[in-house]
Amino acid sequence: QVQLQESGPGLVKPSQTLSLTCTVSGASISSDGHYWNWIRHHPGKGLQWIGYFYSGGSTYYNPSLTSRLSVSADTSRNQFSLKLTSVTAADTAVYYCAGGREYQLNAFDFWGQGTTVTVSS
Amino acid sequence: DIQMTQSPSSLSASVGDRVTISCRASQIVSTYLNWYQQKPGKAPKLLIYGASSLQSGVPSRFSGRGSGTDFTLTITSLQPEDFATYYCQQSYTMYSFGQGTKLEL
């Protein structure tokens, strides 16, 4: 059974960098045909896909976040990470990591429990 | 960007009812359409992928149809655990979600 767990600070000051890590168990993040995604849910609003790391090594980002975003992986620790720079209150959200498989066209099948990040001074 | 519009935004129903939720894409997304269920304080759960394929472990009372721009999620014989918020999501170009449909008792 694949399990994902987000970790990172729950409070980030405006203009600083938001850093989150997702630890995966039950699957290797370097296994062929897997996508490892970040998704967020703004309070009272909808879900927004942020970006992914693909098991082959490539990344793909939401164009609205590209200039501030970096998604990377540490295969030795079976973790992938999100860094979002120059945050504002608009980045306050519940952040999820989620996994998908190529044969399902990266439908988001495995999810972490989510971590709340608040941007505030 | 492809905009996903769900209707209705909220829906009241009773146990045993059949309900249908609609999702319309602003551009053709073929069958690159997924449905999720989310309960308060929990992560979304994948129900349907590829517009009509039932995810493993999901009860057969859930079904999806559609292609192009118009899609539906149908739940036959509602169970108490089905009252939740449902989202559609396209993966044809980037990834975007509908605004959600809250299914209430």
Low-confidence runs of at least 5 consecutive residues of chain B = none
* Gyration radius from CA atoms of chain B, angstroms: 13 Å
Low-confidence stretches of chain A: none
Describe the largest sheet of chain A: 7 strands, mixed
User: Roughly what fraction of the amino acids of chain A lie in strands?
Assistant: over 45%
Tags for this model:
heterodimer; A: 121 residues; mainly beta; 7-stranded mixed β-sheet; B: mainly beta; 0% helix
Summarize the structure.
The complex is a heterodimer of chains A (about 120) and B (about 100). Chain A is mostly beta strands.
Would you kindly provide a written description of the structure presented here, covering whatever features stand out?
The complex is a heterodimer of chains A (121) and B (105). Chain A is mostly beta strands and 121 residues long. Chain A is 0% helix and 53% strand. In chain A, strands 2, 4, 5, 6, 9, 10 and 11 form a 7-stranded mixed β-sheet that branches. Chain A is globular and about 40 Å long. Chain B is mostly beta strands and 105 residues long. In chain B, 0% of the residues lie in helices and 49% in strands. The radius of gyration of chain B is 13 Å and the shape is globular. The mean pLDDT of chain B is 97. The interface between A and B is medium-sized, with 18 and 22 residues.
